[in-house]
Amino acid sequence: MTTCDVLIVGGGVAGSSIAHELRGRGAEVVMVDRGRVGGASSGLNAGGVRHQFFHPPNIRAAKATIGIMRDFGDRFGVDIGFRQVGYLFLYSSEAQEARFRQAVAAQNACGVPSRLIGLDEVRALAPEVSPEGLRGGCFGPTDGYLDPRAVTEGLARAARERGARVLENAEVLSVEVSRGRATAVVTSQGRFMPAVVVNAAGAWAPGLAARYGDTLAITPRRSQIFVMEHTPPLARDMPHTFDSDAMVYVRIDGAGIRSGSAVKPIIPDPPPALEADWREADELQRRVAHRVPSLRASRFTRAWAGLIEVTADNNPILGWSSAVENVYTAAGFSGHGMCLAPGLAPSIAAEIVRESPEMPLDFYRAGRLAQPDALQHESLWLTTHRPTDIDEWVAARPA
Ligand SMILES: Cc1cc2nc3c(=O)[nH]c(=O)nc-3n(C[C@H](O)[C@H](O)[C@H](O)COP(=O)(O)OP(=O)(O)OC[C@H]3O[C@@H](n4cnc5c(N)ncnc54)[C@H](O)[C@@H]3O)c2cc1C
């Protein structure tokens, strides 16, 4: 039996950055993961980090994250391969332009230098992109991409160096609850009696919550990455480019590109790992080649799948459980945990040790989800609906 101040379940980017921040506040921390640190979504994602969100709390959180990423090498001694080449969203309609204009206004008000650009500038930034059917672009020059596994492992290592215990291959088997408190957490590596439990279990957070009698409105969805390992050379500084109509993205990856789509099938009761579904590849190739014609003869050669953890408004759930008084939820990052979790971690850690957070976290409370009409949606693809299967996505193919 081990006592500690805080037991964090989940060694992803959320758990690792919170562990690091909690140690900075002197809390005695144990972080457990049933696999390896960064072995789930946090190591499998596209590594995109952007300021381009719609709502100020998220823009401010992303700004804090990107500040950390810029200094990561100096601060943590780890090369995370951060390439600040920008995010470029391409759009074709007036309605999309209006939505991006609104977002840019919010971003600029937070000090983020994003802007709407015309097709000449789109061509200058991404010469291989075909302007066919496009109206313009929305460009965030301070966005970029990095190696997400290096970030997560780097944060966990920094937490360890500050004195956190990080246990891998330690699965939470049960949570004992008595009089509205989690009194013990039983893992495959022993029994812990923490004062506070943090549920940072990503797509598996609802399953963990069920063990202490709570429900979390987080839907696990599969998200895939496809890689063309060798392609005709593209401009090295090509931004991370999103086609809002085709719902696909393209970015440089080594001597080729990596890509993905908005197709996110729901995976109820998700297993720890998923296989890639290659049925998505043909349609993805068609759409990518339409926007980047020099990729017409290239094929995807590698793919993997992970899970995103989606709430009804695509914003995370942060705060104390309403079912059990000493459990704090930090999950439901909805496919943008790399962008948000490190920046929010100092404020989350402050709340866990009952200090006031630097960034107010009220925007992220679970209670908001009970009022669907008042939700403030984040929407990477400018729509709150994600195609739930490949056939639906193919059927909605743009002209
Ligand atoms: C293909 C793909 C592309 C993505 N692209 C981006 C992107 O470009 N930018 C971005 O910001 N985000 C992106 N995301 C989303 C991002 O990866 C997630 O939002 C983020 O990793 C969530 O971090 P987390 O720490 O909450 O969860 P995770 O990294 O999933 O960590 C949760 C951990 O909990 C552990 N766990 C679960 N149950 C238990 C248990 N019972 N006992 C012990 N441990 C347990 C798991 O093993 C896991 O390691 C993408 C995701 C995917 C899958």
Describe this structure in words.
28% of the residues lie in helices and 25% in strands. The protein has 399 residues and is α/β, with parallel strands linked by helices. It folds into two domains: 2-51 and 148-218 and 312-374, FAD/NAD(P)-binding domain, CATH 3.50.50.60; 83-143 and 220-311 and 380-395, 2-Layer Sandwich (D-Amino Acid Oxidase, Chain A, domain 2). The strands form three sheets. Strands 1, 2, 8, 9, 10, 11, 17 and 18 form an eight-stranded mixed beta sheet that branches. It has an eight-stranded mixed beta sheet with strand order 5-6-4-13-14-15-12-16, sandwiched between helices. Strands 3-7 form a two-stranded antiparallel ribbon. The N and C termini lie far apart (62 Å). Flavin-adenine dinucleotide is lined by residues 9-15, 32-35, 39-42, 44-48, 171-172, 200-204, 208, 223-225, 306-308, 331, 333, 335-339, 341.
Give a brief rundown of this model.
The chain is α/β, with parallel strands linked by helices and 399 residues long. The protein has helices spanning 13-24, 41-44, 56-70, 72-76, 94-109, 119-125, 148-161, 205-211, 281-291, 337-352, 390-395, and strands at residues 2-9, 29-32, 48-49, 87-91, 115-117, 136-140, 144-145, 165-167, 172-178, 181-187, 190-199, 219-228, 240-243, 248-253, 256-261, 302-310, 317-320, 327-331. The site of flavin-adenine dinucleotide (FAD) has 42 residues, from helix 1, helix 2, strand 12, strand 16 and helix 10.
